[in-house]
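User: Okay, second chain of the day. Same drill as before: sequence in, structure tokens out.
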Amino acid sequence: MSHNSFGHLFRITTFGESHGLALGCVIDGCPPGLEITETEIQSFLDKRKPGTSRFTTQRREPDQVKILSGVFEDDRTQGQVTTGTPIALMIENVDQRSKDYSQIRDKFRPGHADFTYLEKYGVRDYRGGGRSSARETAARVAAGAIARKVIPMVEVRAALVQMGPHRIDRERWDWDQVDKNPFFCPDAQAAGEWEAYLDGIRKAGSSCGAVIEVVASGVPAGWGAPVYGKLDQDLASGLMSINAVKGVEIGNGFEAAAITGEENADEIRMKGNKPEFLSNNAGGVLGGISSGQDVVCRFAVKPTSSILTPRKTVTTAGEETDIVTKGRHDPCVGIRAVPVGEAMMAIVLADHYLRHRGQNG
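Assistant: Same drill. Structure tokens below.
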């Protein structure tokens, strides 16, 4: 009943806390015979790990992954392959500073899950939020690396498209720019402008939110089920489960409410002997089933709740007080949410690929 698992045929279960000894995940349902190495998984974790620039938390975690089970050194392939049994991945915590939280152990941090955790469980880990910490997402990124191996025909990419009130110019979208700036931004000019904006936010001890766009190319038509197994339904669930996410859009999303049916419907023509859509307002999903177009999702991440500005709160004893959250925190947690969004998209797509193969052969 603790709901630490996600997926059906490709199923992940994550474990661990922000200030515990380690965190990680167990992946069940991964097909056998897929070549995988710790180095490949690490390349995705390095995009998410803290301390990579002045714009992220300065907690120094190498996020070094270890494969504990589910693989075998196959002499025939001269490499390490999955065996079809559960794959366990572990990432040690090496830079916890629990003392940073000692002064607020009995105070509820506004915007955090302190109050709700205590109400539900009767106990909470005040050291960085414990299980509610975004540190848990490292395990998802590791699982996402395995998921990509299940669907090598699909390319999953994500980018930060809005920081605070500042949006990119989509006319300047360039995927090659995403790995050339600290924000995973596809607009080089916007990335330069965001540096000054976020420096100001950071120096003021405040934070800002962000919007991330995730795109999957190469998804064939037919993945998903019409009613309770919709592809977009599971994508929304996966992305919404990421820490600090407060909204998810598929395709045109909320903008669809402001336009007419003529504008929203994706018209179709023939290209050779195949139908071709003239637009992609649907985000690559129709009736819960992939259309063969790019699958496009966006999710909104709220401002980091841990800030230096005093906020009103109460203690666990019911006393009114103020709180300042010291420690090492992201001024914009949305930056490191980019590889997490990619991972959740890959996990959902791997699961739906296996479901489709199971039903349709």
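Helices lie at 38-48, 114-121, 137-150, 188-203, 231-240, 261-264, 337-360.

User: Thanks, on to the next one.
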